[in-house]
Amino acid sequence: MDVFWCSTIANVRCMSSTFPNSTRAHWRVAGKPIFPAAMPPFVGRDALQIAPDGRLWVARTKNVAQPVHTYDVFDAAGRLTRRAELPPHRRLVGFGAREVSAVHRDADDLERLERYRY
Question: Rounded to two decimals, what is the model's pTM?
Answer without folding.
Answer: 0.62
